[in-house]
Amino acid sequence: MEGYVGYAEWGDVVHSGDSGSQITIARLFLQPGTYRVRPIHKAVKFAKYFVKDEARRTRTAIVADPDTDPVRKRHPELAPSYRYAMYVKDKADSRLKVMEFPLSVFKEFNKRYLLNKKDPGGIKDGGDWQITVTKTAGGQRNITKYEAQYIEDTPIDDSEAQKIKDLIKGTKVKLKELFAAQTSEDIERRLYGNWEEVYGKKEANSSVSGKEGEKINSEDLW
Question: Best label site of 9, 50, 140, 163, fewest CB within 10 Å?
Fold first, then answer.
């Protein structure tokens, strides 16, 4: 699994609004529903475990290499999910956010690149996408389906591009660090440890700020 965590190159497939100036970069969690987003820059890629505990609560952990992970050797039922995350402009409120998404959505982004060599997250080449999430019952676990459809070109002008760049560069934790792999001890604790000790407090990365609190950054956007 060489390359986790790092930027995903297009062509390579593996397993602010009317409300005022934006100073925070929130997380956009894809729950069942329909979203219109405008990708920005490149996606980071990583491998993630999802586990349902006895109380049917979802636990997660990011792993550097599932093939050599000692936690997976102790718990062979663990199956890694290969995920991506990138900055997007959420058209619902015109805010810059960090969106995590599965391989199926990345493949759709990538198809557009392969078709016309246009960068899906490019300032001039990128455009709006509609992402639809549905969840259906499937035996012991629900089945979540993600569909991504290109809508139209939405080039970003120089003024807005600079605002986005300044917002991201004004933060200090890089996107790759936000989705960095956890240690074996942390993975074991997050997946099988005491819930209150691990998840009792709101996770720091649910919202990140450009001026205060936890912050995120990026490397040489354009």
Answer: 140
